[in-house]
Design goal:
By secondary structure, the protein is α/β, with parallel strands linked by helices. Helices cover 45% and strands 16% of the residues. The protein has a 6-stranded parallel sheet with strand order 5-4-1-6-7-8, with helices on both faces. Strand 7, helix 9 and strand 8 form a beta-alpha-beta unit. The longest helix has 15 residues. The protein is globular, with a radius of gyration of 17 Å. The termini are close together.
């Protein structure tokens, strides 16, 4: 069914909870906010960091910018590697590639970080392209990232978009896919709840990596 597949990174290809939440905790502490519960900080995985600092901790835009700066201070060399590939993902990518699918990554994470992660974890042989946001936050909305990925692949007509699906784990992925006229396959093994994803209007839902593999490889 879907010849062209765009994968989200955090919560879809990798379990990045440890690194992201510890870096958010570090950023909050820099502004005298103590948050010992890392599980509570998983809401930061997926949406733009600036927006999350404002939404969940009532920061001003200026404070949120400081939060992002402090977050990256720890993330650049430590938090980025507190991360692991979900079991079965590498095998799935290999099987999809062998099946002739076109594979790419579309992430709201800064592209410079996504490229480093892809190289370290061995995603590069399977991904034709990696699209992320800019460090300055001008393209930190997932819909803009997806639009840029579709432009690179020249999949911009309604007919061409029928061949594309975004695989992601948060409501932002569903909304970004629909904003660009493509389907979203929601990864229930990530950080978004079934309720979050269904309320956002996910086209398809898979509970784990084996279910994702069955779905994708049976829809050729």
């Amino acid at each position: 069914m879907f010849q062209n597949l765009l994968f989200d990174l955090d919560g879809t290809l990798t379990n990045s909870a440890e690194g992201i939440t510890k870096c958010v905790q570090y950023a909050l502490r820099a502004q005298n906010i103590e948050e010992p519960d890392l599980k509570k900080l998983e809401v930061f995985i997926g949406p733009p960091l600036r927006d999350s600092f404002i939404k969940y901790y009532g920061m001003t835009r200026e404070q949120a910018e400081i939060g992002v700066e402090k977050y990256r201070e720890r993330y650049t060399d430590i938090g980025i590697w507190e991360n692991k590939v979900y079991p079965g993902i590498m095998e799935l990518l290999a099987d999809l590639q062998q099946d002739g699918r076109r594979l790419g990554m579309a992430t709201a994470k800064p592209e410079v970080f996504a490229l480093r992660i892809a190289e370290r974890f061995g995603f590069n042989p399977y991904l034709e392209d990696i699209t992320g946001c800019s460090l300055d936050g001008k393209t930190d909305k997932k819909a803009l990232v997806v639009a840029a990925a579709l432009e690179k692949w020249q999949l911009t007509t309604p007919e061409a978009k029928k061949t594309v699906a975004l695989i992601g784990d948060r409501r932002e992925d569903v909304l970004a896919a629909h904003a660009n006229g493509i389907a979203c396959i929601s990864a229930g093994f990530g950080f978004g709840s079934y309720e979050e994803l269904s309320e956002a209007g996910a086209d398809y839902y898979v509970s784990d990596v084996p279910a994702l593999a069955r779905f994708l490889l049976s829809k050729a």
